[in-house]
Amino acid sequence: MKFNFLFPLFICSAFGCQQANTSDHHQEIDAEVIQPVLVSDSTDMDTDDPAIWINQYDPGRSLILGTDKDKNGGLYVFDLEGKIIDSLTIKNLKRPNNVDVGYQFQLNEQIVDFAVVTERMTRALRFYSLPDMKSIDGGDGIEVFQGEDESAEHRDLMGIATYKSPSSQKQYVIVGRKSGPTDGTYLWQYEMKADEGKISLDLVRKFGNYSGKKEIEAIAVDQSLGYVYYSDEMHGIRKYYADPEKGNDELAVFGRDYFTRDHEGISIYQKSDTTGYILVSDQQANKFHVFPREGKKDSPHDHHLIKAISLATESSDGSEVTHVALSPKFPKGLFVAMSEGRVFHYYSWEDLEKMIHK
Prior knowledge:
Layout: E1 10-12, E2 32-34, E3 38-39, E4 47-53, E5 63-68, E6 73-78, E7 90-93, E8 96-107, E9 110-119, E10 124-130, E11 142-143, E12 157-164, E13 171-177, E14 187-195, E15 198-207, E16 216-222, E17 227-232, E18 236-241, E19 252-254, E20 263-270, E21 276-282, E22 287-292, E23 307-311, E24 319-322, E25 334-339, E26 343-348, H1 349-356
């Protein structure tokens, strides 16, 4: 679930301004760089991936979660002013990589929102209830990719995304790793179960093509349309059904021709039930490529490039966005992106939207 005053600050610069190289689309790169409304407090080690938890009763008290990737890293919790909330932040995690949130999971007698983070060095997923950040996995995490080749980094956790089926109400996590097979089984999807007051996981499918060029880290789910997208770095963005009952056919591969190198963080902005934008980080160019969420008319899996926009982020890895009005600073939503300097940038969606349509 994704839930917005405006300070539109634009700086003209030649930074990152290049002619895109694409065989089927002539694109002009805009030289204006969008500045964040604010920058978060810095973490101890190395920021990587953010998530947004929407407080459905009081959106102004929503939270930003962000990983600090190191062998003694952490899962940081920030308020909407970018201030670290020490009482909620989890320290001493073993190289936490990516994080996502889910809503209204039936955990025995209670219904909880939750955060899930990949802990690379333990090969485990860590689950915490929201907003109190209490462990709900038994305290040690839940190992995944069991039986895979550890020496080939096939168990080194990277990406994570949650999905709740609107029809069955089943909740899932979709997990990626540093490396994996090229036989269409790179991602593993687990159904979440309640087991005596804590989370347990059942493997329900293995799916997803992989080029073998680099790695797969960014994974994002379009909850209302039921699709999962992931960045096959240096190759493209792949699209599948998020519901395992709909099969493992690849629906699309797009964004292949005009990224500088790595395809990174994926964020999905919802304008309506069926329309919006998919934003993907072009990490080395400090840009985000914008695609239509709905595809083309009569061709929902044809995601042509709309525009590349420049943000002040440096080497952005993970990102997240919501369309929900959170505060006077973010009246149409909030876009959060990791940046070098051990920080996260908070952007008003209105600033991005103006640039997309400029």
